[in-house]
Amino acid sequence: MQLSEATWPEIRDCESDLAVLPTGSTEQHGPHAPLGTDAKTSAAVAEAGVETYRERTGADVPIAPTIPIGVAAEHRAFDGTLWVSPDTFRAYVRETVASLAHHGFDRVVIVNGHGGNTNALREVTGAISREDAAYAVAFTWFDSIDTEAEMGHAGPVETSLLYHIDDEAICEAELETAREGAGEGWGEWVAGVNLAHDSDEFTDNGVVGDPTTATADLGERLLARSGEGLADLLAAVDSRDR
Amino acid sequence: MQLSEATWPEIRDCESDLAVLPTGSTEQHGPHAPLGTDAKTSAAVAEAGVETYRERTGADVPIAPTIPIGVAAEHRAFDGTLWVSPDTFRAYVRETVASLAHHGFDRVVIVNGHGGNTNALREVTGAISREDAAYAVAFTWFDSIDTEAEMGHAGPVETSLLYHIDDEAICEAELETAREGAGEGWGEWVAGVNLAHDSDEFTDNGVVGDPTTATADLGERLLARSGEGLADLLAAVDSRDR
Amino acid sequence: MQLSEATWPEIRDCESDLAVLPTGSTEQHGPHAPLGTDAKTSAAVAEAGVETYRERTGADVPIAPTIPIGVAAEHRAFDGTLWVSPDTFRAYVRETVASLAHHGFDRVVIVNGHGGNTNALREVTGAISREDAAYAVAFTWFDSIDTEAEMGHAGPVETSLLYHIDDEAICEAELETAREGAGEGWGEWVAGVNLAHDSDEFTDNGVVGDPTTATADLGERLLARSGEGLADLLAAVDSRDR
Amino acid sequence: MQLSEATWPEIRDCESDLAVLPTGSTEQHGPHAPLGTDAKTSAAVAEAGVETYRERTGADVPIAPTIPIGVAAEHRAFDGTLWVSPDTFRAYVRETVASLAHHGFDRVVIVNGHGGNTNALREVTGAISREDAAYAVAFTWFDSIDTEAEMGHAGPVETSLLYHIDDEAICEAELETAREGAGEGWGEWVAGVNLAHDSDEFTDNGVVGDPTTATADLGERLLARSGEGLADLLAAVDSRDR
Amino acid sequence: MQLSEATWPEIRDCESDLAVLPTGSTEQHGPHAPLGTDAKTSAAVAEAGVETYRERTGADVPIAPTIPIGVAAEHRAFDGTLWVSPDTFRAYVRETVASLAHHGFDRVVIVNGHGGNTNALREVTGAISREDAAYAVAFTWFDSIDTEAEMGHAGPVETSLLYHIDDEAICEAELETAREGAGEGWGEWVAGVNLAHDSDEFTDNGVVGDPTTATADLGERLLARSGEGLADLLAAVDSRDR
Amino acid sequence: MQLSEATWPEIRDCESDLAVLPTGSTEQHGPHAPLGTDAKTSAAVAEAGVETYRERTGADVPIAPTIPIGVAAEHRAFDGTLWVSPDTFRAYVRETVASLAHHGFDRVVIVNGHGGNTNALREVTGAISREDAAYAVAFTWFDSIDTEAEMGHAGPVETSLLYHIDDEAICEAELETAREGAGEGWGEWVAGVNLAHDSDEFTDNGVVGDPTTATADLGERLLARSGEGLADLLAAVDSRDR
């Protein structure tokens, strides 16, 4: 259930103590994919996971609105990238979770679509779980799935998922350009340390990986697997001692 | 242009120094209207204003993603209401505007759909304009239009706009209930002071005003007038000395 | 009772759970009125209201010292204007109210003399009332009265009150100059939005309105009406459930 | 010159780059002296020092309004004591000094009347002088003078100064009581460390020292000496490299 | 060169713009290893790396004192564990790096001995490098080396390094106990998400891995490899564009 | 007992509710003494005091690791001086004390070796004792002892203690230089106010006092007296009502 589409009495009548909060980012995804990619993918995975969970258990879990802007200063060399500081992102997430908990939804799974949010989410879910009246964990969909495809950035994995959920969002005419200007790997590594704090240090056009290999079929499988992973997680969060 | 739907090179090629940032809220809107009302209305007004401005001038203005959760602790007695503190809301808006300005969009009009955000937005746009590398003002759509209808909360004005932009979001079956449990006015006033800090002190079901009088026709006129007001404002912001 | 003039045993013996906290500002008031105008007027109104309340009920209410510097960056183009950030102002007020509440004065009416403080006070009294061990509201005297005279800034209303409470503070020789350099209205408005964040954008000498029309008689009536409004408010705050 | 009593053009025409900012406290001063003692004394010393400096040099120095509430949690066991946290006090002082400096008064002497403010003022004047566009130091009047009388708290020194500047503020009938319930010294010391964080741990009525020995004559001498000290300091601050 | 052992003229004469800052933690390391393990290991690795770099290049790099307490709330169920919040840890590191940069050491490698610090260090080095007058990266020694041994917590890797650098710090009598009460893996995982925010959820005695397999020989090799990795990193940091 | 050298079960079995937390500074100590002087001396005094207390009472008190970097911006003109802001220092100390208290060590004596930390420690121990679940005081060793020698900075007192505890840390060859470039007194005083915020305003080489008069004998006596003072304080803290 999308919380935004429900009225307050409908939420009052919802018996769940689970809720899902998607977090995206508005940041460059190469010349072929839209700035809103991570918000789209986190929202789609949240919906898939909640639907799978509903099929398995009959229980409906409210999905809060997607937080659209995250921790993305690393991409600021590319136009249109929006970002807030990790402190502000954590505060926005933490207080949103607190308001969910105020209404009884005190087991919250954050469904995340952006790698740059991951560390901040691990930190803030720890703080929430230790100090606030709620338990929270963060699920970053592309870390939950095994796939032969390369994650990269705006690469085959993300582009495939976009093909499946919103193919009009992809500029097909730019895919070849995207491939040509892509970086070979994420970061510039020496002795296990990434020397690069920003993505323009290792990719000319913001892409890492080859998005021309993306397919809607792979996207469908990725969404299904992510949804199953999220449903597994919701079940575990529902049943554990807080 | 929706920034989220564009790629970074498309944004790079956009010559505007204007941008629009919608701010909503996820909060009770009575038994008949969805929790996401203020995000829907601010997004719709932003789009209408940018379209009117484009028709008048030929210039396209990017619309950032809607900030979905705002300053709404006053509605926390009603289920599903989400909120962050004014400090966190201001920080989230301010840093988002700073990232827009980083890319050259340093004249930002915030299009707001929630009364509870208004004071925080006046404060933060002053701080941005004085201290940061950008100029910003906030446009709260229902304060920009003259109308015979009552604003209230989830009353005829908001409900009419919803009828026009997303009529499926309204629970028509609950309209009569909404009218019956509505408060008569916003607040509990003595000597020019509102004694009530929270809305449940003066409305049983969260509504103020009579939403049964709402019509899609009125909604259409409200959107057109708001869009014109916003286009006027964009022109003024574009041409003024910062 | 002025808290500052009392000893601690006198305050211990005071049975009120009401207290009054005046907030002023130190900021330009044109060429004819002193920088301390808003501190003077808020203190005078506080005293008048507490005296009226004492006459009506027999109860004495302690008046805390006036906070002299507020949210006034908008006037910083004019010499001598002092200001703190809204965050610091809110913290100073909030902690002062907490210390009043520590001693049992946990129903606090802030008596405000400066328009620029209003939004910050609405926000902080909401936070106090929801989260702290006190209830607070803010009474801005010129918003509580109906008058034919124009508020403006350093205009007929404020100047009249000064004539009544401290006529030596007015430079009569500058009144004509004040009138001539005054702005016509507060702000620069387009589509319901004030484009101006600072007062020097719409007034050459800091004045809005015509202070030459001010009279001590009007000042006396304004003080009486404000005092009555404040006494009404104190009664309402005293009797309501917190 | 009292800044609050001046108009903005008068301040504009003032050629000083010196300014004085008094800081008081609103806190218990025993059964015989008012809660506002420290605000009264700091204001009186500021005025005396500025007058002495004017007599010596012909230059007038603006005196900002007294900050009335300071760092006084240590007295919170006694009714009517108001306080803010050291962080908030420092922010309030620092931003006030910044606004003085904005108008060219960038050599600021804080005239302090409360021991509990001293450490916070040393810290914040260091931060201002190192990081902001101003130089500041704090002058705590009773630390600047040699006297045979004991400082204590609400003891002979402060009570004598009150006798001279505002004798009606003293409850003479309570002086004997004040003497009887007074503590013998400030604090509870072991190995050079004061174990007591709060004053009620070592004084029953808030007094330290014997206020019955206070005289207006001593008060007059204390004010003169403090004024001379402050005038010396103003001269030194005026002439030093920042 | 240990900065703490040098005088200020010796540091003035040091021509490096590199510096090393070790960060440890004071936290449980099972029944057999001391609470200060992570401070000892980070200091030892820092020294080894600086020595290797000196042998290779002839250049001496100052080592700042080890920050002894880090982000370790996850171990708070075990006695003696000390921790600060991630915010405070980041501020302490960031300001320390800024003071190094003030003296010209504006390329700083943080040598970290504690997994719980890693995310906070990645975040703060990004902020330093983007916003401050310095470049910084963090080197977590056990992430820089390939080894057949299991990292775990207080397991074979850490225990081996302790055997090599400070064997008296190990309680050999407790090694068997340590092995018996150890957890099998770090965390409690579902769908790629660690449900456990605290270590007592998955280990009875704080250990993960089998410390009885630790040897001083392995410790020696680990230190050598870590020192080489750090020397490689110092060279890369020295030569890159900031 | 050094907490860092103990295992967690050893700390669990320690019955004390006392703990000691040393705070140093890493800052210039003239041409003859190391930057780490204040960390060395506070650690030595902590150890001496805890040993004396153990001899007197049989009770062992855990000593937390020394916080190595403190409030020392005043020395930043001299190379190698490290510092954090007072806010960050207070947060680091406060949270460390809170974690000690979490394990039952809720009577904490901070043993301080740096004058610049003193005000910040007085403030934070007050805040801890009033607001947190612990009692804390700060013992600055050179303020606890009577001695004929001059404290100064890197003068006879500190240098003597270094001679006793770590004579290799002293550059004897620089002692004469140290004496010659030393300032005559700490600060630049007018009317009881130190005009100097930084030490390079009154000392050319960072020294105040004559370190050539230092002796190991005096150092031994200073350490003994400080240890006795600290043991007295521990006894007083142990037995007082919190």
Automatic annotation (TrEMBL), chains A, B, C, D, E, F:
Gene3D superfamilies: Creatininase (3.40.50.10310). One of its GO terms (molecular function) is metal ion binding. The keyword Metal-binding applies. GO terms for biological process: riboflavin biosynthetic process. Keywords: Hydrolase, Metal-binding, Zinc. It holds the Pfam family Creatininase. This is Creatininase family protein. The keyword Hydrolase applies. PANTHER family: 2-AMINO-5-FORMYLAMINO-6-RIBOSYLAMINOPYRIMIDIN-4(3H)-ONE 5'-MONOPHOSPHATE DEFORMYLASE (PTHR35005:SF1), 3-DEHYDRO-SCYLLO-INOSOSE HYDROLASE (PTHR35005). InterPro entries: Creatininase-like_sf, Creatininase/forma_Hydrolase. Its cofactor is Zn(2+).
